Amino acid sequence: MKAVIMAGGEGTRLRAVTGALPKPLVPLLGRPLMEHILLLLRQHGFTEVCAALRYRSCDIRSAFGDGRRLGLSIQYRVEDRPLGTAGGVKNCADFCGDEDVLVVSGDAACDFDLSALMRRHRESGAAVTIALSRQAVPLRYGLAVTDAEDRVRSFVEKPAWQRVVTDLVNTGIYALSPRALALVPPGRPFDFARDLFPLLLEREELLLGMPMEGYWTDVGTPLSYYQCCVDALEGRLKLDIPALFFPALPEDAPHPPEDAAVTLDCGCRSRAALMGALSELMLELDADYSDGIRLNRENFSLHIAPLSDASSVRISVQAQDTEFARALALSARDVARALDL
Q: What is the pTM of this model?
C-alpha cells in the first residue's frame, strides 16, 4: 500500500520548541514526530511512502533518506511554492498512480489502525474516507457532521462553542481515491477542507467519515507538544519508544522506591521570564501556582520553581516508576530550554 506524508509546513506556532528545525523533525520521546508516523505506516502494511516537502526539505531528506533504515521505500516531492494540502498531494500524483492512497500529516501524533481505515474506504467505494477523532474540546479543529451511515453531510471549521454541533473532528488523515485526486488542479494552491471536500459534496460523491479508536492530536503548540509527551509516557499514546530512552534496570538492581523522585536544574537567561512562559504553557493543564508551578496527576507530580541563588529553575518529578519520572523531567527540561531561547 502507498501513503503520502504532508511534511511541508513551517510550524510557526511551535517555533518556541522547534527553532529553525522543521516541525516533522521535532523529537517526541527519542524519535522525530515524522519517524513515529513512518513506523505506524509500516506497522499497518504501507511499504511505499512519498513525502510532500517544502520548508527545509533537505533536512527531512537527510533524516530519512530512501527509507531502508525503517524498512520502507521513501520518495520525495518538493514544492517550489505553497500548494495547500490537496495541492501538495497532487504534486505526488506520479507516485500515487491509479490506486487508492493514504494521506497523513508528518507532524501529528496518533496510533490509529490505518489499515482498517483503508479497508473501510475500499469496501465503501468512497471518493474520500476521512479519519475522525472524538475531541471533548474541538474548537481548534474542523468538525465533520455525519449521518447514521457515516456519510459526511457538512463541515464546520474551527467553531466557537455556540457553533459546536459534534465532537467528531477532521484529523487530516484521508484515504483518497484516484477520482478524487483527479479533481485537484495541478500546480496551484488547493486545499482538502476548503476546496476539494465542498466540491465532492456538490458533485454528490460519497464522502465518508470514519470515527477512529485510539489517540490523535495535532502537535501544533508548545502546550499540545508537552501534553503529547505526557500522554505517551502514561501510555495513552502508543508509540515505539527507543529502549535507550527507557534504559532497563540491571536484574540485580533494587526496585525503585514507591515514590521515586527525579530532580534536574535548568539554567536560563531570566528565571522570572522563563517561569512566566512556563506558567502560560501550563494554564490549560490546571496547574497550581501557589508554590512555583505544580502539576498533580494520578500517576505523577511535577514541580517547577526558580532557584534563589542561581539563574536556574529546578524541575522535580515524583512518580511510582523511576524511569517514568526521569523521562518526564527530561521532557520538561527540553521544553524549558526551548522557551528560554
A: 0.75
